Amino acid sequence: MSISRQPLIMLTVIFLLMLPLLPVHAAEADSVLNVSIDNEQVEYQASTVKSLVFLSAEDVTASLGGTLEYDATKKSLTITYKETKATLDLGSSTIVVNGEKMSLDAAPMLLEEVVVIPAKAVPIIWGVSIGWNEEDLSIRTDGEEVIMPDVSKVVVEKATLLVNEKETNVSYISIPADAKLKADVVVAQNCIGKVETLEKLAERSYAEAAINGNYFQSYDPSKAMEPYGLIVKKGALLHAENTGGTIAFFNDGSIKVGVAKSVIKADLNGTKADIAMLNHTPAKDGSQIVLFNNFHGDEMGFAYGTNVVVQKGVVTAIEQNTNTAIPEDGYVLNFTGSQEELAEKLAKDNLISYQVSYVNGANEKLDWSEVHTAIGAGPILLSAGETAIDPEREGFVDLTGFGLATARSAIGYTAENNLILVAGVKCTLTELAVIMSQLGAVDALALDSGSVSGSYVKGEYLATPGKEISTALIFR
């Protein structure tokens, strides 16, 4: 990484062993900070991980001066600057400075394959002052105190609206576009078909704000509590059942609400086939091909149809009417009804592959290559500022609940891409569209409703759901 500041002292970096030999798993950053030294911007790797701030040991040493020695065998780094010699060990929050042990708030580690140190080690080693907020980190080499302004990320708003000539009080979450919070889908117990409280989902994902997500099966205890609609997380499709509308979040910060369907095309040893769903239990009397991977759990959870086990692109087993185990390094294709004829043509060591794409309601291809998060629910409430409720177009079959007044959730965004999260408001679907419009949304999507409707912000419920949920849409 280049640095736009001349080092104060020549940097020497000594790697005694190559980094990949370390038996340490690299962490992932929650967010990246802008860094300045004496008000001059520098190209640093500075990131937050679980609310703690870390900086690249190499970047800091190159910019502030000194030498850095890294021993991959001992997982230890030694930084020498003027009269200060500091030793830090990966995984230990103790720093030894000139022979004296001191405690830090975190341990050095590998962050996306780069050795990073906690920000609080920087003043100890280099004698500088340092400060940061959710977006920026500032270093002053003169040691003067750094005072960083607060960054307003999430705002709880209250409004009294006129809906059907009746005053309706709404408390909602507003997330400004310039807050630069990133959306993510959190799945209960990290496994399709489970449930968890919204509070736990928000807390364990370090969310600034959260709202209940997909519809899910919660009324028949004999069936899996699986979600409906799409789930895209970190750009990967994790669940596909093409009912409802979606909200998609792109890497460039743009957001889109609309009808989006997954298209999964398989090559079964030279035979082309369509995969109907991903990680969603098919009807026993249906006729489909469904793909199950580890995100569904360790096993299928049902015992009907023909199961083709695929590992590293090769068929390794074929089982019938069995609750098949899902391999860690592969997936299982479940064939039911007339589709079982395709499975009968397969044998061990046959080659299997598949590709995922997306289309809109008119079956026109969508470019979702830059989508990092998407969640399906619906129906769509608003499109380009106009009411756009059409549940039949989105594949909903049972429409009885949409006309009832019940606790409802929705997400929408303004023309400026400011997000609006509403939950726990008792209203009909049409009234929910009016509420979202009056709050300033130009596009909006209904989320699951009733006893699961809830929102969580800044460590507490704004709207408390009555039961556990399958998924949450969170922002951090």
What would you say this structure looks like, in words?
The protein has 5 helices and 41 strands. It has 476 residues and is mainly beta. The protein folds into 3 domains: 12-140, Copper amine oxidase-like, N-terminal domain (Copper Amine Oxidase, Chain A, domain 1); 155-259 and 368-475, no CATH class; 262-357, no CATH class. A 7-stranded antiparallel beta sheet has the order 16-17-37-36-38-34-35, with helices on one face. The chain has a 6-stranded mixed beta sheet with strand order 1-7-8-9-10-11. It has a 5-stranded antiparallel beta sheet with strand order 2-5-6-13-12. Mean pLDDT is 91; it is low at 1-25.
Question: Which characteristics define this entry?
Answer:
single chain, 3 domains, six-stranded mixed sheet, globular, 41 strands, 43% strand, 476 residues, seven-stranded antiparallel sheet, Copper Amine Oxidase, Chain A, domain 1, mainly beta
Structure in a nutshell:
This protein is 8% helix and 43% strand. By secondary structure, it is mainly beta.
